[in-house]
Amino acid sequence: MTDRAAIRAEAARLRAMFEAEGAQPVETAVLQPAEVLLDLYGEDIRARAYITSDALRGEQMLRPDFTVPVVQMHMEHGAEPACYTYSGEVFRRQEDDPDRANEYMQVGFELFDRAAPQTADARVFSLLYNTLKPLGLRAATGDIGILMAAVDGLRTTERRKNALRRHIWRPRRFRALMDRFSGRMAMPESRAALLAMADPLAGAAPMIGMRREAEILSRIKALQEDAVSDPISENEVALIDAILSVRETSDNALEHLRDIAVDLSAIGPAVDRLAERLEALEKRGIDTTKLDFEASYGRTNMEYYDGFVFGFYAETRPDLPPVATGGRYDALTRQLGRGREIPAVGGVVRPGLVVELEGLT
Questions:
Q1: Which ranges carry the Aminoacyl-transfer RNA synthetases class-II family profile domain (predicted)?
Q2: CA R_g for the chain
Q3: Which of 6, 51, 115, 308 is most open to solvent, judged by the fewest CB atoms within 10 Å of its CB?
């Protein structure tokens, strides 16, 4: 087991480096209101977090990460632009992988700046890239914003687009929805029978549970409207698949995505932002011809990111989680800002993994 004193010393070193980059040190409470995180992630987060109850404060959650409370703090009191750093333990249940730590240290760097988002992306990424360079890690990057733009550009109903947006971070559910909306998957017989009924609630059993009749009728109406909507075209499905299959060096990925944008113009602005980001990275000394890009990267474990995403991995230790991760989360500031928003990007490092890998180098 890695020595806790060594981990804390490494956390202090990283935090001091981030402070030297202009970040203001901040602290957040270990116990966070569960309501905020449940509103953001839904009930799914219960499977990944430690939740307790307080007679006065209601449900509380052991801090699963720092980003949400830091964004809340900034949106209430912060000036623009602003930059923060922090360090401390986070807590996540690992029932599907008992060998992974359920409590570990994080050190983070968060940047709020609306002036030049792509330049800010490059600043945060290059800071972590240079900080971790002695470890010889592989950097992976992606851009959730390109897939979101592709969904926005589909010629289908807003209801379907909203469903697809909601499940971008759940690849299997996203694929099932695309198959259903495009007609690739036949409607289940039970649903077809329900929609064929003149009065779907006729003869229904007494209402049990939290849902009311109005909610059920609203859901049935949505299913009826969807059933008579034209399917998403095979061409558009193929373009979504083409985007999700992009996995190459950043320069080649950019050219590939530009080709796709010829047939799916909705992704054009997002692809332009990728080009600006790569140019900003080059100015900071990052060789983008050797930087991996995967259009689907971050879709399984980065739920509040909506643009640039990245991670750093020890290729000689595939058993380890990423040493550092980060990305852009503009939508999160909008959700927590009560109508206000500011473009934001950040990254976190796990000092325990840094110490472990330093012992191997």
A1: 14-346
A2: 22
A3: 115
Is 304 flagged in the annotation as binding? Answer: yes
> Residue 224 is which amino acid?
Q
The answer to whether the annotation marks 299 as part of a ligand binding site is: yes
SS3 sequence of 34-84: HHHHHHHHHHHHHHCCCEEEECCCEEEEECCCCHHHHHHHHHHHCCCCEEE
Residue 318 inside a domain? The answer is no
Q: Which domain holds residue 162?
A: 158-232
Q: pTM of the predicted model, to two decimals?
A: 0.86
**Are the beta carbons of 122 and 276 closer than 8 angstroms?**
no
Per-residue model confidence as pLDDT tens digits over 207-247: 555 556 566 556 666 665 666 578 999 999 999 999 999 99
Is 65 annotated to bind a ligand? Reply is: yes
Residue 340 domain-assigned (yes or no):
no
Known binder of ligand: residue 50? no
Let me know the angle formed at the C-alpha of 280 by 241 and 291, rounded to the nearest 5 degrees: 50
- 106 annotated as ligand-binding: yes
Domain count, the chain: 1
Q: Does residue 227 fall inside a structural domain?
A: yes
For residue 60, is it within any domain?
Answer: no
Helix then strand then coil, in percent of the chain rounded to 5, is 50, 15, 35
